[in-house]
Amino acid sequence: MKLLRELTGNAGDFAAAVGSVTLFCGRLLAQVPRALLRPSLIVEQIHNAGALSLVIIMTCGLFVGAVLGLQGYDLLQRFGSEDALGTAAALALIKELGPVVTSLLFAGRAGTALASELGLMRATDQLTAMEMMAVDPVRRVVAPRFLGGLIAMPLLTLIFIAIGIFGVQLVGVQMFGVESSSFWSQMRSSVDMNDIAEGVIKGCVFGFACSLVAVYEGYNAIPTAEGVGRATTRTVVISAVLTLMLDYMLTAVML
Amino acid sequence: MVSAVSTHASSAQPAAVSDALIEIRDLHYSVGGRSIFSGLNLSIPRGRITALMGPSGTGKTTLLRLITGQIKPTRGQILFDGIDVASLNTRELYALRRRMGMLFQNGALLTDMDVFENVAFPLREHTDLPECLIRNIVLTKLQAVGLRGAARLMPSELSGGMNRRVALARTMATDPEVLIYDEPFTGLDPISMGMIVRLVRHMNSALAITSIVVSHDVQELSELSDTSYIIAGGKVVASGELKNLKGHQSDIVNQFLNGLPDGPVPFHYPAADYYQQLLGSEA
User: Fold this and answer.
1) How far is B275 from chain A (nearest CA, A)?
2) B30 pairs with which residues across the strands?
3) Which H or E element spans position A66?
4) Is the pTM of this model over 0.90?
5) What is the tens place of the pLDDT at every residue in B7-48?
6) Distance from CA of B91 to the nearest CA of A (A)
7) Mutate which of A37, A52, A116, A133 to test chain B, going by most B C-beta atoms within 10 A?
8) Among candidates B3, B13, B53, B29, which has minimal Cα distance to B221?
9) Which of A4, B6, B71, B204 is most buried, with most CB under 10 Å away?
């Protein structure tokens, strides 16, 4: 009986949370057209979410690419197909690793920054002060941050993929001596626009999900130090789980 | 009366001018099963400084949140210039709030903007004034609070008193009809406190606005307020000029005004028997 009560209680909490996120999402999307009228606020947030994440994205992209080069070369040379390293690595990066790893890094860097910033604004009455000045904080503060994250995420994904391919090339071509011309020509002949579109679409969807989770958790944070900390942690955990779940669904649809 | 109120509420326009700008009638409010107000009645006269006082935890800040429409009462009415605040939708409430200004206990300045931009914020959001005019208005407001020279400082570089003076300048930027101060003296040194008292008095008389000050600082409020309400137990227990309340019959009023450590508000939080608890094992 106790287990049943807990299960029904958890199901009720889950349904309430989904409802709350849906309402918040509706309120946020309704404010997006008005937020678009002030592009300077969005550009500032693209800088915060995107430009400030560049170093971590590029560094991780390089090392993920390098590891992919090592493992890929080791695997392919067993079959005497080292020349296919470029194709294999590029497809892995463009279709899977690029969007997924970028999204996880984005949640850890930009998502936590967004959630803690909004949570602290809540805790220090800044959001309430805006409401008292008859300024809707969802329009003025939340929507530009959401849009900034949404726009930055696919751009970061593309940068991650480009740097990752450079990392693969560094290991495969420069270190192990894979033929440069076959590395690039096989990659160019195997990768088409649909593959790139798949990566970009995933980047956009993950950007939407991660940015929404971050602004929702931050905006609804309990206005205490513990509440802001919890919102930040929840942002990372929920974003990571959502990213992997959505990745499976998108892959199943687009394959 | 209700129909008249709802007619006005729909347009968020003022009703016929009466002496009271804000009237609270039979206000009930409870949260989590705990009653905060149970039949509270009071009226805030137009153009005067009204103090809302009471021991900690009596719901003074909650009352401000009710007046400004941040939360809705369980029962009763809060009439702002004849408009029932609880009946307004978001758009009407925002229209009404443009007639109010609220000074928060911590200032609530936007931390990613400097002092100038903080004061300019409501002007940029609500008006299409040219930049030169915004600049002049901001500098005028900052001059009024004595902080024109701090225009390019960030909120993190300000002291507590300066923080509240900037917040006051920001609140004044759009010339509200009523200014609401939530604990404006808390944590200030005597100099900063004196500055805030002077500013509240000056703003009220020079601009002919209505001021509501929530505080438990009896000394400062006795100099400042025209009329006072002491709230305890979810109701108004005393009202009038603060200096006339000193010899009030109510024990709670006497305990509050004289700062007595024990009385109707007990020193000890309700607990189990002391000796039994010491001899027992429970915490």
Assistant:
1) 35
2) B35
3) helix A54-77
4) no
5) 333 444 444 456 888 999 999 999 888 889 998 999 999 999
6) 9
7) A133
8) B53
9) B204
